[in-house]
Amino acid sequence: MRRRTFLGAALGGAAALALPRRARAFGDTARLVIGQIQHGGRWNPRPTGLRRLCWELVQRTSIEAGEDAAPVRLGQPGLHRTPMLYLSGDGALPPFPEPELAALRRHLQQGGFLLVDAADGSDGAGFDASVRRELARLLPASPLTRVAREHVLYKSFYLLDHQGGRVLAKPWLEAQVLNGRLAVVYSQNDLAGAWARGAFGDWEYECTPGGEPQRETAFRLGVNLAMYALCTDYKDDAVHLPFILRRRS
Predict the structure, then answer these.
(1) For domain 3-247, is the CATH number 1.20.1250.20?
(2) What is the pLDDT of residue 13?
(3) Residue 38: which residues within 8 A CB-CB, separation 6 or more?
(4) Where are the domains of the chain?
(5) Alpha carbon of 99 to those of 103, 188, 210: distances in Å?
(6) Cis peptide bond N-terminal to 213, omega within 30
(7) What region, left, alpha or beta, does residue 104 occupy, with left being phi > 0 and alpha being psi -120 to 50 degrees?
(8) What would the 3-class secondary structure string for 108-163 be?
(9) pTM for this predicted structure
(10) CA–CA distance, 225 with 183 (Å, rounded to integer)
């Protein structure tokens, strides 16, 4: 299945994202719903993070997003309805059963996108060690590699040249590539920790060492990731440069 066909089926048919009116981006009723993968560990350590990202997507872009992420179980029907998946954890991640990995592998091969976010900011232990093990099982022919600074991911909506998150465990993203596109993107910086906001409007976690600018970068990166998940490299074309520059601040 071609990626465009996959996204069209998942979102009810996609119109051009460059349209100035937000409500017409994907049709009147279709919404992007991020699927949050459930697993045997602490799979939802930042319950308000994706909710806030969805709100920011609606405010900042032409994407009509759901109000919150939807919990999903790999291997169960309906995975194709969530073209953007999110996997997080705080601490070690138990191994996925092979049928669940096979279902996720098919989803990615058919055009799906997976964002992996280490809530514990770990490096070489905890979530980091176990998720690297699982990603190696998931796509053994596509090892994690650093995303180049010049990649279209960093200009899919905002022009970015640095990372954000609750912490800065690594100044880069890593990815697994399928057919020339980023199918899996991995951040060790706890993006959702920077996005998380309480019911009374207070940020749940401080961002260190960069403070509020680091939080804003995390939101901009989240927007870019969602835009890339939906349209991959369409903004790699120079015709979109004026639109991108107008969004830069």
Answers:
(1) no
(2) 42
(3) 44, 71, 72, 73
(4) 3-247
(5) 6, 26, 41
(6) no
(7) alpha
(8) HHCCCEEEEEECCCCCCCHHHHHHHHHHHHHCCCCCCEECCCCCHHHHCCCCCCCC
(9) 0.84
(10) 11
Residue type, 236: D
Gyration radius from the chain CA atoms: 17
Specify burial of residue 116 (Cβ count, 10 A radius: 0-12, 13-18, 19+).
buried
Structure tokens at 71: 């919990």
Which helix (H) or strand (E) segment holds residue 219: the answer is helix 211-231
- Look at residue 10 in the predicted model and tell me its pLDDT: 54
CA distance 128 to 130: 6
Which pLDDT value is given to residue 31?
85
The helix-helix angle for 211-231 and 49-60 (nearest 10°) equals: 70
176 bridge partner residues: 184
Which pLDDT value is given to residue 167? 98
CB 166 within 8 A of CB 194: yes
Pair 145, 177: CB distance under 8 Å? yes
- The stretches in the chain having pLDDT less than 70 are 1-30, 232-249
- The bridge status of strand 174-178 relative to strand 145-146 is antiparallel
